[in-house]
Amino acid sequence: MFGVKANEGVYDRMARVVLAAGLFLTALFWVGGALSVLFYVLAVVMFGTACSGFCALYRLVGVNTCKKPVEVSKVTLGLFAAMIILILVGGGYASNFFTKKFFIEDFNVMNNFYKQTLFNTGQNKRAESIENYDNLVSELAVFQKKYKNYRPYAILGDGQFNADLETVSVKVAELNETIKTGDLPSAHIGLESVRQIFQDILKRNNFSLLAVTLVDFHDAMEVIIAEADAQNSQGIIEAYQMVSEKLVAVETEANDTEIQAIRQNLNALLDLAKAGKTEELSAKAGELKSSFVKVYLKRG
């Protein structure tokens, strides 16, 4: 029609369709930024040349893979189409699964140092707090660098992700002097605000429901612990229902012996409050928090 003569053979064109599918999956799941644009463009070029049967580069270098016409049956074309669908569907599913898995693993590396820093500042342990804080700063920088431009498909639509990471980075950096030479309880309070940001990221992107429910329970648990430390039996009784509901959400996700220990301590705290044993409330609240921390450090 335009004076362009086909110079790609049938199997050449099929190979280009396969390559286009691979480039498309790579752009969608595995790379980000300018590199993803490049792969999308290459995918379009490969698919376009496969459809037209003409490759300008072949003409420039004098290559022609369409010297002899090859008859392709409808069965062969049907099988090839099925193969492409399988590549796109199967490859898309596998890519989504593994990129999500790798993201969670990277997040957990950073988050574990955050949780340890949070825990040790709460325990007023300077050396342990500094060690874990330094690791947190390092891993946060690595995580932020990797995911600043690249987004695995699971968080591809999260327009707030980069802003949240930047906020976390600023908050963590601001606590440097406080953790190393200042008041650790104050640093602990400052670190608590980071937990809410991480929780929001997980919620928005449907990650680790157990982790999300543990964080939600923690907020409620702190309310009843505060009442226990104040030896306020009535406050404990009033707060129990809210805390219990948050724990039910955790139990829905997992209910092994460690989580059952949280329930046992919570119920025991309520029983002490109802019995008016105010002198025992603070100690039991400490047991409740310890049982929670044991689970949270491992799976939160």
Automatic annotation (TrEMBL):
InterPro entries: YgaP-like_TM (IPR021309). Residues 5-68 form the Inner membrane protein YgaP-like transmembrane domain. Keywords: Membrane, Transmembrane, Transmembrane helix. The chain crosses the membrane at residues 14-31, 37-60, 72-94. The keyword Transmembrane applies. This is Inner membrane protein YgaP-like transmembrane domain-containing protein. It comes from Candidatus Uhrbacteria bacterium CG_4_9_14_3_um_filter_41_35.
